[in-house]
Amino acid sequence: MICRLCGALVERVFVDLRHAPASNSFLTATQLHLPETYFPLRVMVCDSCRLAQIDEYKAHDEIFNAEYVYFSSYSHSWVQHARTYVDHVVERLGLHRTSQVVEIASNDGYLLQWFVKKGIPCLGIEPAKATAAAAEQRGVESWTVFFGRGTANRLVRERGPSDLIVGNNVLAHVPDLLDFCGGLALALAPAGTITLEFPHLLRLLDECQFDTIYQEHFSYLSLHTAARALGTANLEIWDVEELPTHGGSLRVYAQHRGGPHDVSAHVSQLLGREVAAGLEAEHAYAGFAERVDRIKCDLLAFLVSERRAGRSVAAYGAAAKGNTLLNFCGVHSDLVAFCCDANPNKQGLFMPGSHIPVLPPEALRERRHHRSSSSLAASAISSSDSGPSGRYHWPLQLSMP
């Protein structure tokens, strides 16, 4: 493949998770009887710029379509994370009622609603129609488009440049990094700030978080590669924060090169830690695939032993990360009976690939009530996460004789 950041030929395989359906393509009962499309899920590392990436086997406009089922607001901890961020960034940047805030991939208004409550003008850029409609119901004006240079030019033409551009968990989802970063530079006011949050590649490596790999995530970013991507548009990172969200993320603050903010010592410190960990060399990526295979074997051994003991296993949280885990391990509803999720848009559907039914959380209590000697105990096998509040152990064992 050709590197989406530097254009070099990429030949080094980081990890190959074989083939999987798109992780948020949940199925109806009727669709269970139809063919299901699987895509390669192989992460490569560029030897020139060190960007870890997958190819765009499924087009981004097919992923973020009208059937997209991820609604941010069903994660209460994520909504609180957004509210805390808004309070912090408004004070830090001195935003006010004449400022302009734009969020890219604004989903259902989970974050911009807090700017609306403060009376600060804002706009959401959200390509998925259902989530954009939910944002509008919260009073968040939304454009149903993808972001890039074209959208940025329209934004400046119709509304002027932005004082703050927010991008939470979007940079990794962008197949055309150069167009995206170019759009950021075009839309940003001369003294404006961009904040981007994304899972940190260093944490993925340290904790073997292979379940964060799926078709929506085209890139797996370090601070080095994020800085290189922004640098293609003459943008620079002036501060960075490490967050517990999504198993360990970074929040970077960026500006036009030479902008008003001095570059924090946090930036050089974290860049140094990445170098020390080998992210700028080859050895950091060696052995990762073997660690992934061990997790697969451990999980299957646990599920088979529970099945042989006459117990059922259920899961909580029908997350995209969980789908990566299930499909790589070859787990179906014979080993995991069902999965509960608070998002009503997923309830009544079936998880892609595994075809495990998604039920409301009450199903856990109901099924315990109808079985004797039932108890819940968390297993510590998986590396999936429940969202911003940190990582949960997936699946949950629901012991039912």
Q: How would you describe the overall organization of this protein?
A:
This protein has 401 residues and is of the alpha/beta class. The protein is 31% helix and 21% strand. It has 12 helices and 16 strands. It has helices spanning 60-63, 76-93, 112-117, 129-137, 149-159, 177-187, 201-206, 223-231, 265-276, 288-308, 320-329, 362-369; strands at residues 12-20, 39-45, 52-53, 101-104, 122-125, 142-143, 162-168, 188-199, 219-220, 235-243, 249-256, 312-316, 338-340, 358-359, 375-378, 396-399. It has a 7-stranded mixed sheet. The longest helix is centred in the last third of the chain and has 21 residues, at 288-308.
Index terms:
401 residues; alpha/beta; 7-stranded mixed beta sheet; disordered C terminus
Taking Cα atoms only, what radius of gyration do you get, to the nearest Å? 21 Å
The 3D shape can be described as globular
Low-confidence blocks of residues: 372-401
Protein structure class: alpha/beta
Cα distance spanning the termini: 50 Å
Mean pLDDT: 90
The total count of strands amounts to 16
* Content of β-strand: 15-25%
> What is the string of SSEs from the N terminus onward?
EEEHHEHEHEHEHEHEHEEHHEHEEHEE
List the helices and strands and how they pair.
Elements (H helix, E strand, L loop, with lengths): L11 E9 L18 E7 L6 E2 L6 H4 L12 H18 L7 E4 L7 H6 L4 E4 L3 H9 L4 E2 L5 H11 L2 E7 L8 H11 E12 L1 H6 L12 E2 L2 H9 L3 E9 L5 E8 L8 H12 L11 H21 L3 E5 L3 H10 L8 E3 L17 E2 L2 H8 L5 E4 L17 E4 L2
Parallel strand pairs: 4-5, 4-7, 5-6, 7-8, 12-13, 13-14
Antiparallel strand pairs: 1-2, 2-3, 3-9, 8-11, 10-11, 12-16, 15-16
Helix pairs in contact: 5-6
